[in-house]
Structure formats: C-alpha cells, structure tokens
Amino acid sequence: MNQRPKPLVELLPLVTGLLLAICVLVGIVGLTLYLDFSGERPQHEPLAELPAKPDMPISKALMDPAGMWQAPDWASVEKEPNADEIKYGRELIANTSEYLGPNGKVKKISNGLNCQNCHLQAGTVPLGNNYSAAKSTYPKVRGRSGNSEDIRLRINGCFQRSLNGEVLANDSKEMIAMVAYMNWLGQDVAQGEKPKGAGLYELPLLDRAADYIKGKTIYERQCVTCHMVDGQGVMKADSTGYTYPPLWGEHSYNQGAGLFRMSRFAGYVRANMPFGATYENPILTDEEAWDVAAYVNSLDRPARDFPNDWPDISKKPMDHPFGPYSDEFSEEQHKFGPYQPIKAAAKK
Ligand code: HEC
Ligand code: HEC
C-alpha cells in the first residue's frame, strides 16, 4: 500500500517531457498557420487563370453537345439567289455600329453596340443568344406587346431597348437584309420548332436572392480586365464600335432590354463570359452568374418608358423588374429573387 505513490514520482520527468514536446509541436503548427494566412503569401490568382486540375474540374458542359443546332455552312450562301442580301444582313449584325451607330454611315439610330455583342458570332453560337429559332417561331404572340409580333417587330425591339435607339423602317434595305440573313440561318429548322441550344441557357434558380455585393467581387475578378472598373468597356480607335462593350451607364442597353432581366443576363454570362467561355467550357458557376448579374443590373443605365408593354400584367415573367404585378411579391423580389415562391404562386 505505502509503495503506491513511488512509481508516480518516478514517472514525473517523463510526463513533463511529453507535455513539453506537445507544447513545441502546437507552437510550430500555430506559427505555420499564422504565416499562411497573415497575407505574407501572394494572393490567389483568379480562378479563370488557374490550369484545370484533372481531379478538380473547374467546369462542366452545361448541355450535351449531341444534337446541338449548328449554323449552315457560310460558304453555301453563294448558292442563294439573294446571297448579297444575306451577306449584308450578316454584316449589319456583326458591325451594327459602323452602319447604324452614333457615327453610322447609313443612319444614326443606335448606341454603338453591335447586335453581335450579345448575339455572338452573328447569332450562330449555341446558347450564345443565337437566331436559330427566329425563322421557325415568328410571328408569335408575345406577352410584352400582347400582340402577334413578326420578326421585324422583334428586331426593332432590340434596336429600341438593347441598342437604346430608334426603329428601322420595315421596307428599309437594312431590315430586309437582316431578315434574309435570319431566314437563311434557320433554313433547316422545322416550322414551330426551337432547336437544341437555341437562344440562352436557362439557369437553375437559387434558393436565395442574388447578391450584388458578392457580384461585385466576381466582377472585379472576372470582368474588369475587358469591361473596365467603370463598366464602360473599350472603344475601338476609329470609334466605329467597341472592342469591349459597356455593361452599364448611358451607352449601355436600357431598362426595357432583355439583359436587364436577371435570368437573361445570368444565362448569357454563364455560357459565354468571361469572353472565351462556352457552354462546353463555362468558367462561372450558377451562383457567380446570378450574383454578377445582380451587380451589373443594380447600376445606372438609360431609363425608357414603354407604356404599351405588358397589357396583361399577369404575363410578366418572374424576373420582370417593374411593377405592378398580379401577385403580392415586391419589385425587389421580382428583380433579384428568390424566384421559387413567385413561380410557385403563379402555378396556383
Ligand atoms: C445588349 C444585348 C443585345 C443586343 C445588343 C441585341 N440583342 Fe437581340 N436579344 C437580346 C436578348 C437578351 C434577347 C432575348 C433572348 C431570350 O429571351 O432568350 C434578344 C432577342 C432577340 C431576337 C429574338 C430571338 C428569338 O429566337 O426569339 C432577335 C430576332 C434579336 N434579338 C435581334 C437583334 C438584332 C437584330 C440586334 C441588333 C440590331 C440585337 N438583337 C441586339 C439581347 C441583345
Ligand atoms: C477577355 C475579355 C472579356 C472578359 C474578361 C469579359 N468579357 Fe464580356 N464581353 C467581351 C466581349 C469582346 C464582348 C462582345 C462579344 C462580341 O462582340 O463578340 C462581351 C460582351 C458582354 C456582354 C454583352 C454586351 C453588353 O455590352 O452588354 C455582357 C453582358 C458581358 N460581356 C458581361 C461580362 C461579364 C459579367 C463578365 C465577367 C464575368 C465579362 N463579360 C467578362 C469581353 C470580355
């Protein structure tokens, strides 16, 4: 019995040694962590510039490329009786500003953007806001006008809103040429059909409102190099158009434009921006696309009243940013989400 305390005393040096060793270890680990996070290391590069690691893919195709719509071979245009018209149409869509912009050589009726800035490669890119369904789905009744719209009215819609400008006369050489080009592009699409990859990518909805503060960080990381900190882009040296188009401010699309709706903007950038991204190799995540859309669309741009829009307000899309609405949700929620409750209420 009285021998018990003895071994404990003998163990004391060993226990002290062990404790000391632990203290030193914790100290080293702590110091390493501290140095790691104390800003002494170089900042992380933007995600887009990191090489993709095979075990951690940065991006995944947004849609299976099989059966994707493809534009007809451009060389085959020569066979068409109206080849000159079609070619002029394509030229106008690619270089709109040169012909119809603020210094346009045909007319001065638009803000300096090219149709192609948003309808990539003259409207031929899958999920790049292409014109594959223009021939097959117009004329159609649209909620915005409450009327049947033919393709010329739809084109003029983009002139008045996306190009914050004026309309072209239906019988003008320019209108006839653009329509001829779109009809040629959609020649293989059956009447009434929308081919795979038509228009824009439809993003899954977030379960929260899009966050323009997060969006600003994404903008600064992924967009400023081309569209600039002030969002005004870069004008070509000869002022015939933009090398990098503006995203907000007086030279950008107005508040009546499709891109002013969050789902259109997010869908466009998710599959196409930063420039070089494609639906097969996207760079942004869904969340980043929604948040950067919120940032850009929360900044100033031309306001323009279209008093005849939406004669039936119940037809407004979930993300139409201006009231009145046929439901109880606020303008703020219609603009930035969350959209699920709005959709659920509309279903009832
Ligand atoms: C600032 C961006 C922007 C510019 C510039 C722009 N558009 Fe659009 N356009 C859109 C958006 C967004 C849509 C709607 C896409 C959707 O809802 O899927 C659209 C839709 C269209 C459609 C309907 C396509 C369909 O299948 O329903 C046509 C046609 C069109 N634009 C023609 C033009 C023409 C011609 C020009 C140049 C004069 C032009 N757009 C310039 C953004 C733009
Ligand atoms: C490497 C340069 C580059 C980067 C980075 C870039 N863009 Fe663009 N962006 C372009 C170019 C070029 C166009 C016009 C495309 C064309 O005409 O072919 C464009 C067009 C656009 C348009 C449609 C035209 C307009 O002015 O409204 C939007 C919207 C857009 N970009 C958003 C973004 C967003 C958001 C980011 C960041 C996530 C981004 N871009 C990053 C080069 C870039």
UniProtKB/TrEMBL annotation:
The chain crosses the membrane at residues 12-35. Residues 308-333 are annotated as: Disordered. Residues 84-217, 210-300 form the Cytochrome c domain. This is Thiosulfate dehydrogenase. It holds the Pfam family SoxA-TsdA_cyt-c. Residues 308-319 have a biased composition (Basic and acidic residues). Gene3D superfamilies: Cytochrome c-like domain (1.10.760.10). InterPro entries: Cyt_c-like_dom (IPR009056), Cyt_c-like_dom_sf (IPR036909), Cytochrome_c-type_DH (IPR051459). Keywords: Heme, Iron, Membrane, Metal-binding, Transmembrane, Transmembrane helix. GO terms for molecular function: electron transfer activity; heme binding; metal ion binding.
